Amino acid sequence: MVYDEENILLMTPGPVPFHPRVYRAMSRTVFHHRTPEYRKTFTECVSMMKEVMQTRNDVFIFTGSGTSAMDAAIANCVSPDDKVLNILGGKFGERWAEITETFGAKSIPLDIEWGKAVKPEMVSDVLRKEPDIKFVTICHNETSTAVLNPVQEIAKITSKHGKIFIVDGITSVGGDYVYPDKWGIDILVTGSQKCLGCPPGLGMIMVGPRAWDIINKRKRIPSYYVNLRAYKKAFEKSSETPNTPAISLIYGLHEALTMILEEGYENRVRRHRLMADAVRKGMEALDLQILAEKGYESNTITALKYPEGIDDSAFRKGMQKHGTLVAGGQNHHKGKIFRVAHMNIIAEREILLLLAVAGLVLREIGFECESGAGVSAAQEVFLKNLK
Ligand SMILES: Cc1ncc(COP(=O)(O)O)c(C=O)c1O
Question: How many CB atoms lie within 10 A of CB 220?
Answer without folding.
Answer: 6
